[in-house]
Amino acid sequence: MPIFTYTTQSDAGAVTTGKLSALSRAAALQDLKRRGLRIIDLKTTSPLTGNIQLRNPSPNGMDMSLFCSQFALMARAGVSQTETLQALTRTTSNRKLQLALEDVRQKVDGGILITRAMNEHPLIFDRSFIALMTAAIRTDTVAGTMDRLSMMYERNVKVQQEVKSALVQPAITIILALVVVLVLSILVIPQFKSMLEGMNVPLPIYTQALIATSEFMRSWLVIFPTAIILTGGVLFRRFHQTEHGKGKVDEFLLKIPKVGSLILLGSLSRINRTLSTLLSNGIPKNDSIDIAAKASGNAVLERILQEGRAHIEQGGLLYQVLERYPKQFPATITGMVSTGEQQGELAPMLDRVADFYERQVENDAKNLTKTIEPLMYVVIGVMVGGIVLAIMSPLSSMIAALSK
Predict the structure, then answer these.
(1) Is the pLDDT of residue 84 over 60?
(2) Where is each Type II secretion system protein GspF domain found (predicted)?
(3) Which end of the chain, N or C, is more open, meaning fewer C-beta atoms within 10 Å of its C-beta?
(4) Rounded to the nearest 5°, which phi and psi values hold at 81?
(5) Which residue did the predictor score with more confidence, 40 or 280?
(6) pLDDT tens readout for residues 219-277
(7) Mutual orientation of helices 259-280 and 299-313 as an angle, nearest 10°?
């Protein structure tokens, strides 16, 4: 029988963690509900049963977009918050979002404000969501706000997918090519080694190098470079998790030709879309910039926006800071922000900029893929062709010698 680990909260606010056995996840949920406990988290711990989920990911952008769209539809129809949360708990496919919504529903039933209940799940309902929801409830514009949130999540996901597709596809191709070369070097070349060496034909230098490389990769010496690579990966990950390390890595990524430009465009699109959505719903300018800075996903851009926020608090304008960094914030953005701030229409200006950069990301992603693909084919051709040449050259020499 599967074993489940749960985290619950009592009416008094005490959080409890424990384990229980149940036939299924649904049975475990019913058991905990019968005890009168509010479920914060529930996950399986037995990896050998049929109902086990090996992964319990957080909701992605499309999950949140669908949730916001359904919430807006039910709010527009006049459905109460409790009934809306109960219905969305049943329809969402993401487990973590289901548990969070169930917890929020129980707290709302207990008289707690929905925004306060959602704020207890920051990994699901981020600062921009809470800020927009709070403003929407205050101004009685929940349906419209949730529609804009749904669109924001959807468009941000689209941009992220374009960037990832352009960067991941070449990487996968190169990795597969390296795997093929590795298999050839370890499994195929040794089969030809004894035959090549018994031909009594001088082996070309590149054939000797290929055989030596194959022997090295088959020997225990390969453990050392592998250990170095793994250790380097762990150290890099820890370095990237620090504030200083993330800043340095993000700064380096933006300097990579073609790739850095695509990453920058994706971040700028997300910044403008988030900032426009927040400002359109009445969120103060300082708070909007702070939230958009953290949503950028890039430490360099976040630092610049925080500098702009501080400048605004001193009586300045955002564009005055952005124009100091033309490499990160091109004149297109600076000019639109300047016009928007001076005319009091910053939100619609940013929305237009976001639309422009979304189209630019799509075009640049396609162009990057078209540019990299021929280069990848050349590299793969040289690698595989070199191996074939190193094997076939001695065979050709032997056949030519025998034919005389």
Answers:
(1) yes
(2) 67-190, 273-394
(3) C
(4) -60, -40
(5) 280
(6) 766 676 678 888 888 888 888 778 788 888 888 988 888 888 888 888 898 888 888 88
(7) 40
Whether residues 149 and 163 fall in one domain:
no
In this structure, the answer to whether residues 147 and 229 fall within a common structural domain is: no
pLDDT cut 70: percent of the chain above it: 87
136 lies in some domain? yes
Q: What's residue 11's pLDDT?
A: 65
Q: Which domain holds residue 199?
A: 159-403
Which pLDDT belongs to residue 3?
67
pTM (two decimals): 0.67
Q: Are residues 106 and 74 in the same domain?
A: yes
322 in the same domain as 241: yes
Residue 50 within any structural domain of the chain: no
Please count the structural domains in the chain: 3
Residues 6+ apart with CB under 8 A from 319: 334, 335, 337, 338, 341
Among 55, 335, 314, 313, residue whose Cα is nearest residue 322? 335
The DSSP result for 334-401, as a single string, is HHHHHHHHHHT-HHHHHHHHHHHHHHHHHHHHHHHHHHHHHHHHHHHHHHHHHHHHHHHHHHHHHHHH
102 and 250 both lie in a single domain: no
Let me know: does 299 contact 246? Beta carbons within 8 Å: yes
Tokens for 6? 């749960």
What does the radius of gyration of the chain's CA atoms come to, in whole angstroms?
29
Judgement on whether residues 93 and 222 belong to the same structural domain of the protein = no
